[in-house]
Amino acid sequence: MEIASDMKKIVDSIVVAYDARTVALGYLVDGVHDTLDGFVTERKKLSKEQGARLAGFASGLARDVGHKLREFRDGRAAMASELSKNLKQYDRGIETGVAGLLRGFAQAHARMSRKLHGDLKDCAAGIALKTHGLLGGFRDEQGVTAANVRAAHAAWQDLTRTMAARRREAELAEPGTGPGIAEPAGFESPAGAGPAAPQAKHRRQHRKHKR
């Protein structure tokens, strides 16, 4: 009875451990999906914001340049050559500044993309490592449990064989000489007389009936 109870406890422990690890793996998978969705959403948001800011900057810059050009064209004729020279220099400066800003935006975007990629890679590697550790621990516990179940099964088989051998020995034993039976000291029971003879006859009939 104790062996059956222990076996039941072992089976219940296996089921509980399996359920716990299944729930943990489900949480890990949900966490990975949420993290990936968050990265995608944040990246789209940043890209949209940067596009809008760049478009607004270019539009405002174009308005400023147009205004300055109109002021220069409405200026004095005497300053036309100088204004034209200054305008050309100004245009080159604007182009250089815009090109620098565009390069700065591109470099910042590239750095941000590399950082996001690195963070995502590290997160995925960490989750994979934790998942591998959980699975390894489950396999170890499963192996130990299987070994205990095999040992309990072997012990039960040994007990079954031992009890069967004891029963066969008891059935084959002669009356008064079997295990646990002893005649009193100095007692002699003649063949076919006394209480031992009916008892022996009864045992022989019982063995014959069992065969």
Describe the structure.
- This protein has 211 residues and is an all-alpha fold.
- It has one domain (2-171).
- It is built from three helices and no strands.
- Helix 1 (2-73) packs antiparallel against helix 2 (80-172).
- The relative contact order is 0.07.
- The model is unreliable at 177-204 (pLDDT under 50).
Which stretches of 5+ consecutive residues score pLDDT under 50?
A: 177-204
Average pLDDT taken over every residue: 77
Count of DSSP-assigned helices: 3
| Helix/strand class | mainly alpha
Run of helices and strands: HHH
User: What's the shape?
Assistant: rod-shaped
Question: Notable features of this structure?
Answer:
211 residues, mainly alpha, 3 helices, 0% strand
In short:
The chain has 211 residues and is an all-alpha fold. It contains three helices and no strands. The chain has one domain.
Secondary-structure blueprint:
Elements: H1 2-73, H2 80-172, H3 196-210
Helix pairs in contact: 1-2
